């Protein structure tokens, strides 16, 4: 049996209320929190496909919008907030703390799946919650935007980039060299930034599923850690 519920998560510093969809399979082995990137939302068909694959592997998923409705409207006009990595990371950190207290997920280790600028936010949040975050996967991400906190990440990190996404691939190669944990860079041949080519997002789903299955295990949180 799988439980599905809409959730609201309060960001304690700014008071923003984030909307999300939590799906928890029976005997879940971990939970993956999705951090979308530029101009996306929790309804992204690509993230929905990846999430479905992860649930088939017995992992819970939380897809959420990191912006409020008003912020989404502002970002649609200015394209500015999506590059506010500190704001996105703070929202992800709040969601991570919420998962650690929620009855259905508090015994599950957390993984982050980040896309575009959401990948940078995922890495920053992982650096801030080293005891809580067990793995990070970046899809077409901008890990370079995590800046100096890249060296503070302790979660095993998988970087997935399209072979035809040349600029982002170069940025991922630079970030890969800065990471000081278990890490891997996977290039999907023929794929562009959004992985819209036939079979591309399926390959992303398989790679992410393998990574999270290897690094997420059920356990009781001993300590969340803090920045």
- Cα distance spanning the termini: 37 Å
What is the number of domains? 1
The Rg value, from CA coordinates, equals: 16 Å
Question: Number of helical segments?
Answer: 6
CATH-assigned homologous superfamily:
Alpha/Beta hydrolase fold, catalytic domain
Q: Biggest sheet: strands, sense, closure?
A: 8 strands, mixed
Structure summary:
This protein has six helices and eight strands.
Describe the structure.
By secondary structure, the protein is α/β, with parallel strands linked by helices. Helix content is 35%, strand content 23%. It has a single domain (2-215), classed as Rossmann fold (3-Layer(aba) Sandwich), CATH 3.40.50.1820. The chain contains 6 helices and 8 strands. Strands 1-2-4-3-5-6-7-8 form an 8-stranded mixed sheet, with helices on both faces. α5 (166-178) links the parallel β7 (157-162) and β8 (183-188). α1 crosses α6. The model is unreliable at 218-225 (pLDDT under 50).
Q: What's the layout of helices and strands?
A:
Blueprint: E1 2-10, E2 17-25, E3 31-35, H1 45-56, E4 60-64, H2 69-78, H3 85-101, E5 110-115, H4 117-128, E6 133-139, E7 157-162, H5 166-178, E8 183-188, H6 200-215
Parallel strand pairs: 3-4, 3-5, 5-6, 6-7, 7-8
Antiparallel strand pairs: 1-2, 2-4
Defining key terms:
227 residues; alpha/beta; Rossmann fold; 8-stranded mixed beta sheet; 8 strands; 23% strand; disordered C terminus
